């Protein structure tokens, strides 16, 4: 049987495909931009007759039909590997929960620890002449997940970029149970969050000054990493490499400015390596069939040993808050879940272990709440319930618009003094009092 004949044999409608799902099933909903569309709409029609469906997914890029039924909490639970804004709203509606993970370990969870998945469904690119469906810009953990799935349903989307890789970036038709041809919606876009602020630019300039020619880059999502990317694109830097968890628009700008060659990478030379990508159409068009860009599973991209093997590795990530001990929270504020652990700790540790490498965690010194009150992001201690993403022992460079400090090797009083020096001036005196009360302040030049 030819691949084309096998395709036709497995082709069905979304409504027919979701009939395989039954109450009590574990269901996989893809990841980020590969979250199903037509299958989601079809399942929403069926969901009122189902109960106790456990769904796993993450980084939703647009609302889901299954969440718009009456009383969704009576029918399914959404378990998120990494939360976005849509999923945060569902927490208050009682059917969304965060699954704490070390992202680099996620493929291993599926292979070694989690119960088998009953049904896995996701959007893919059209089948190629060899019978393979590209997983688009979401290799991440999807192959490992499908290895433990009883039924695999792919929803073909002609707009999904065909993302090339080295391994675990596609699924063969022989592994697929059903094929659905959807309505080919545009791939969901993730905006850059608006123009960089003066604070973003101030932080970015300090970091860019620390980047040598030939460095290998990892950028997190958010205004500050994007501002760094914009400055890099305008800089005189050359022969940069890319090895990152998330591929974002900033990398496209840097590459098109001629700054990326990957010539100095010790592994995956000349290639930009990433676990998943989300951004604008510009990004998806750039990744499509681009042999320079290497889609790979997250247990490879985020492996500390892999990261540390790349010389001059520069890791740039955001934080929500940091306390005077150097504990970094990048995923929650108190008990309010904001995102997830992702791979930040892996890149913080891997960059530090890299020869010439540096890890930068950046944040604005303050934020203003909905009532117009300004608060310091540098705190005496983290808010009760806040999750420590990076421990105080792992913190490397911390950057605000008021400066940059290196946490490595500092005692508690030195940490407090260093962090207070980059806090907003309006909060420094109170932070000194807090440090004194905590017995981590030594009289200094202040």
From TrEMBL:
Gene3D superfamilies reported for this sequence: 4-hydroxybutyrate coenzyme like domains, Acetyl-CoA hydrolase/transferase C-terminal domain, Glutaconate Coenzyme A-transferase
UniProt-annotated binding residues for CoA: 220-224, 320, 343
UniProt-listed GO biological process terms: acetate metabolic process; acetyl-CoA metabolic process; butyrate biosynthetic process
InterPro entries hit by this protein: AcetylCoA_hyd_C (IPR026888), AcetylCoA_hyd_C_sf (IPR038460), ActCoA_hydro (IPR046433), ActCoA_hydro_N (IPR003702), Butryl-CoA_acetate_CoA_Tfrase (IPR023990), NagB/RpiA_transferase-like (IPR037171)
Keywords of this entry: Fatty acid metabolism, Lipid metabolism, Transferase
Q: What class of enzyme is it?
A: transferase
User: Which Pfam families does the record match to this protein?
Assistant: AcetylCoA_hyd_C (PF13336), AcetylCoA_hydro (PF02550)
Where is the Acetyl-CoA hydrolase/transferase C-terminal domain positioned along the sequence? 279-435
**SUPFAM superfamilies the record matches:** NagB/RpiA/CoA transferase-like (SSF100950)
Domain Acetyl-CoA hydrolase/transferase N-terminal stretches = 5-188
User: What EC number(s) does its UniProt record assign?
Assistant: 2.8.3.-
Q: Which family does it belong to?
A: Belongs to the acetyl-CoA hydrolase/transferase family. Butyryl-CoA CoA-transferase subfamily.
Q: Indicate what this protein is called per its UniProt record.
A: Butyryl-CoA:acetate CoA-transferase
Source organism per UniProt: Anaerostipes butyraticus
């Amino acid at each position: 049987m030819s691949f084309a004949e096998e395709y036709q044999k497995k082709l069905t409608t979304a409504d027919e495909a979701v009939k395989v799902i039954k109450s009590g099933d574990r269901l996989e909903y893809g990841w980020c931009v590969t979250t199903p569309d037509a299958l989601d709409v079809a399942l929403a029609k069926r969901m009122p007759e189902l109960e106790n469906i456990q769904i796993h997914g993450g980084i939703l890029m647009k609302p889901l039909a299954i969440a718009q039924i009456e009383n969704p909490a009576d029918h399914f639970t959404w378990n998120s590997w990494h939360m976005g804004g849509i999923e945060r709203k569902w927490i208050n509606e009682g059917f969304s929960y965060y699954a704490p993970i070390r992202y680099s370990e996620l493929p291993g969870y599926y292979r070694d620890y989690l119960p088998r998945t009953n049904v896995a469904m996701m959007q893919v690119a059209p089948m190629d002449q060899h019978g393979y469906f590209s997983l688009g810009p979401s290799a991440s953990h999807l192959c490992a997940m499908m290895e433990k799935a009883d039924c695999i349903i792919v929803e073909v989307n002609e707009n999904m970029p065909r993302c090339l890789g080295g391994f675990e970036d596609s699924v063969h038709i022989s592994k697929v149970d059903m094929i659905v041809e959807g309505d080919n919606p545009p791939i969901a876009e993730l905006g850059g969050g608006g123009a960089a602020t003066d604070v973003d630019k101030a932080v970015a300039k300090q970091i860019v000054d620390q980047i040598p020619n030939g460095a290998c880059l990892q950028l997190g999502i958010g205004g500050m990493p994007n501002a760094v990317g914009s400055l890099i694109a305008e800089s005189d830097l050359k022969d940069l490499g890319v090895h990152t968890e998330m591929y974002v628009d900033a990398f496209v700008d840097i590459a098109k400015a001629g700054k990326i060659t990957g010539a100095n990478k010790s592994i995956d030379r000349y290639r930009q390596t990433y676990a998943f990508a989300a951004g604008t159409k510009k990004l998806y068009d750039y990744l499509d069939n681009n042999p320079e860009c290497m889609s790979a599973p997250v247990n490879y991209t985020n492996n500390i040993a892999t990261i540390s093997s790349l010389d001059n590795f520069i890791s740039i990530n955001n934080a929500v808050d940091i306390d005077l001990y150097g504990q970094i929270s990048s995923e929650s504020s108190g008990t309010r879940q904001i995102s997830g652990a992702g791979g930040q700790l892996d890149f913080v540790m891997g960059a530090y272990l890299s020869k010439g490498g540096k890890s930068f965690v950046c944040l604005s010194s303050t934020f203003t709440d909905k009532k117009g009150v300004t608060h310091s992001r540098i705190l005496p201690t983290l808010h009760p319930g806040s999750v420590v993403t990076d421990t105080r022992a792992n913190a490397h460079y911390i950057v605000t618009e008021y400066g940059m400090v290196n946490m490595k090797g500092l005692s508690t009083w030195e940490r407090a003094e260093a962090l207070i020096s980059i806090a907003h001036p309006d909060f420094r005196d109170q932070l000194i009092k807090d440090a004194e009360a905590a017995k981590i302040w030594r009289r200094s030049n202040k």
